[in-house]
Amino acid sequence: NGFYLSSLNCLSCPIKWSSPLGSTSPANCSDSSIFLWPDDDWKAAIEQAPDGTSVFLSRGKYTGACNLAVSRDIMLMGTMTDGESETILDCKSLSRHFHIDGATVTIEGVTLMRGRADDRQRMGSSLDQEGGGCLLATGNAYVDIRDSIFSGCSTSFSGGAIMASASCVALSRVEISGCSAKVHGGGVFIESESTLHASAASIVDNEAAESGGGVFAIFSSVGLSRSEV
């Protein structure tokens, strides 16, 4: 238990996407692309997107209880200007943002604010369903997060921002701050042979009531490259 560092990358996890690096130009889009604005029914559109869909979110703030269940392989792209995200998903501490189960998902150029996971969101009797204030990855999911920010997320269990169980999470140029957990992993909690790989990431100013203010890993592997925890 505790915080285990290794040089292991997510080599065993499938990488199915090649990101257009924040561009929302139609020239980068396939026939399975959809474009959404804050006034759209964006939650239903994301949950119902078929396998292989690229979802482009325009600039603006998307608010309310999110709690999106994603079980298909999709790419979620925000709008970026000069390297800064202009797409904000704010759950207002009503729910977590995403539960990704058994899917390969890329998230890029998005600011994720005020997600919360607690007893009210339990699915079945598994305690791990309470964790991940912003994002919960389960069922051999692969989640690739790039150029994004997690801020002000919390959980009554573990993983203030992110929790992964038997899954792989890759962070590239990601900032996680101001998140908290009442048990372990104020920023990130991984368990059950999960893998976390962080490159040029900042996981700072988070807190956990018991241990692992930044990252807590148990029976899992963590690889850090040019990152601050």
Describe the overall structure.
With 229 residues, the chain is mainly beta. Helix content is 3%, strand content 40%. The two termini are 18 Å apart. Mean pLDDT is 86; it is low at 1-30 and 121-125.
Query: Which outline best applies?
Result: globular
**Percent in helix:** under 10%
| Distance between the ends | 18 Å
> For the residues shown, what is the average pLDDT?
86
Strand order of the largest sheet: 1-2-5-10-14-18-22-26
Strand content: 35-45%
* Helix/strand class: mainly beta
Poorly predicted regions are: 1-30, 121-125
Biggest sheet record: 8 strands, parallel
What order do the helices and strands follow? EHEEEEEEEEEEEEEEEEEEEEEEEEE
Tell me the Rg in angstroms: 16 Å
**Number of strand elements:** 26
Distinct helical segment count: 1
